[in-house]
Design a protein that fits this description.
The protein is α+β, with helices and mostly antiparallel strands. It is 35% helix and 16% strand. Strands 1, 2, 3, 4, 5, 6, 7, 10 and 11 form a 9-stranded mixed sheet that branches. It has a 4-stranded antiparallel sheet with strand order 12-14-16-15. Strands 9-8-13 form a 3-stranded antiparallel sheet, with no helix packed on it. The structure holds pyridoxal-5'-phosphate.
Amino acid sequence: MNSDIRLSSRVVAALQEVVGVEPVQLHTPIFNGNENKYLQECIESTFVSSVGQFVDRFESDLASFTGSKFVVAVVNGTSALHVALELAGVGINDEVLVPALTFIATANAISYCGAIPHFVDSESTSLGIDADHLREYLGTHTEQLSGQCVNRSTQRVIRAIVPMHTFGHPSDIEALLAVASDFNLVLVEDAAESLGSFYHGQHTGTFGLLGTLSFNGNKTITTGGGGAILTNDEMLARRAKHLTTTAKVPHAWEFVHDEIGYNYRMPNINASLGCAQLERLPEMLLAKRNLFDRYANAFTSIPEVNLLKEPSGTRSNYWLQTLILDSSQAHLRDDILELTNSVGIMTRPAWTLMADLKPYANCPSMDLTTARDMVRRIINIPSSAHLGNTHE
Ligand SMILES: *Cc1c(COP(=O)(O)O)cnc(C)c1O
């Protein structure tokens, strides 16, 4: 093996085996279905905004695909999380357990409720919350007072836990549900990255009291911008719809709003795009699995680099393909990022841990050893579905 050649050069060669030599983005959407047709229909109907049939259709198509009884489409994944947390009872001065290894939207949504993120560690197989480590931590750092989980050092109530399915790989959600139940925490799932990912055959985002999806431009399917709230609870679904549509009381002409709601409803024109995208989702998921196999094959010659694989018992959507460098090679991460980007192959490191960002530096946090270790070793590589089609 050419182990005398720089690791970054060998990574570029392996990537080029799969993606070719033309510049390639991290993740681009594909519009090869009914997108134009539905957009045209939507425009011709003049109902491009907050009323229209595509929103209802998108919600019911998502309900069938995910198996969630109720779906409420909203303007983006962040607003979906904000409202889901509010409906879960998260309020001012509550703490909410959230992985330090996540996109900032998860922590921001907690802040929008006036609550405080409390950062927890990840485990290395799924990159999701480490349930065992968390259970041990809660056992020593919290006490139960009248059925509430209280943080001993801040005296604040820890109200909820928000697992996130990182890069599409399902977290160990059953273990996390058990922790939530034993410590009296409400579980809300951030499934923004995991549309099309299943844990023991059940769709991610449908395990907690509420779950959320994102249809941002870089996600598995896109509505331009968009998100959705999932729940099996009819009352919560009604509350979600009400709160995200300015809390207007239905009436033929009067403007009566019975609480402070939000203008978070997904516009019909975005939903029209979503309906077309969702029709192609099964095909995209197959292409993304195929892309994983192609990368896995190309990287067999580089034993110092592993591809993050779906955890056993799960089916991942492989939203973002992920290289994990051996610990001994972590110091070469930036060299690899530099060389790949300089030859036109877009690659990215993992997010900066939330606990290391200025707005969240003073929040409570458990020891983040594994999250910190993994961040040094993660590189996301081009992941668009079109790269998985074998005719490339
Ligand atoms: C994309 C994403 C969101 C939501 O993002 P929006 O851009 O608001 O749709 C939330 N959490 C995570 C982990 C995400 O990746």
